[in-house]
Design brief:
9-stranded mixed β-sheet, transmembrane helix, membrane, Spore Coat Polysaccharide Biosynthesis Protein SpsA, Chain A, transferase, KdsB, two-stranded antiparallel sheet, 9 helices, Cytidylyl_trans, 19% strand
Length: 289
């Protein structure tokens, strides 16, 4: 079904106005917090969304990496972060829930209808008894995520009241340049995200990787202001989001700002069964238990 240009334009303008109002309100709130001597966005929860069904790798959260389920390794790393007041796993699968409770994690059961990790985080947030200012969406398929990165994106969001979202990038390895599972990112001079893509960005006329250009790899971990996270599911899907299948593009297309920090991190995401062998070899070589 086609959508008229005027209707689409009106919808876009309304969301842009809405984002500006939200941004202004957050800036005022930040000032109020600082005047009272408190930290802005001080209460922080880490949520690890995990689902069993996956077209690329079914049961991925439960795959063992050197004797431990991957979800457990992620949870243990997250608990080392100093900026998190609490860490929970959000899942729609009883097998994952049982596994997580077995190693001591708090679990929030969420519906199967969640379309992505962000929506799962939002549902889990509504079910938590305590109130939080920031939610960190911790990807369960980065079992070697460094707690310093979690702390870094929280601090970045606390320091940027005009942003509703923060995330981390690192240097892109040349061999990952054209891998659609490795999401690339470009940022502006002030450290705000411009675009994310499964393709190589920027893309030059030669069509080849430029060894001198500092391409950036998105690590997937991200934090949200909880006020925005409640709005996020109400935002209609956007063309770029649907084309790239990247949920963060819906944030940018609707006019919201996203703060990005650059970190030095050897990314070891698990997207396919073959990645498990790679990460185990990496851990053995460095005596990582």
């Amino acid at each position: 079904m086609s959508i008229s240009t005027s209707s689409s334009s009106s919808s876009s303008k309304s969301w842009i106005v809405h984002s500006l109002l939200v941004g202004a309100a957050m800036a005022v709130a930040a000032g109020a917090y600082l005047r009272r001597g408190n930290r802005f966005r001080s209460r922080v929860v880490g949520i690890i969304p995990a689902r069993y069904a996956s077209s690329r790798f079914e049961g991925k959260p439960l795959v063992e990496i050197l004797g431990k389920p991957m979800i457990q390794r992620t949870w243990e790393r997250a608990n080392l972060a100093t900026m998190l007041d609490h860490v929970v796993v959000a899942t729609d699968d009883e097998k994952i829930a049982t596994c997580c409770r077995g190693f001591g994690a708090d679990v929030i059961m969420t519906s199967e209808s969640c379309r992505n990790g962000t929506e799962r985080c939002n549902e889990a947030l509504q079910k938590l008894k305590k109130k939080y200012d920031v939610v960190v969406n911790i990807q369960g398929d980065e079992p070697l995520i460094e707690p310093e990165i979690i702390d870094g994106i929280v601090k970045a969001l606390q320091a940027a009241p005009d942003a509703v979202f923060s995330t981390a990038v690192t240097s892109l390895a040349p061999e990952d340049a054209f891998d659609p599972n490795r999401v690339k990112c470009v940022v502006d001079n002030s450290g705000y995200a411009i675009y994310f893509s499964r393709g190589l960005i920027p893309y030059n006329k030669s069509g080849k990787v430029n060894p001198k250009f500092p391409y950036l790899l998105h690590l997937g971990i991200q934090s949200f202001d909880t006020k925005f996270l409640k709005i996020y599911p109400e935002l209609p899907p956007t063309p770029l989001q649907l084309e790239e299948d990247l949920e963060q593009l819906k944030v940018l297309e609707n006019g919201y700002k996203m703060k990005v920090i650059k970190v030095d991190h050897n990314a070891h995401g698990v997207d396919t069964p073959e990645d498990v062998e790679k990460i185990e070899r990496y851990m053995r070589e460095r005596n990582l238990s």
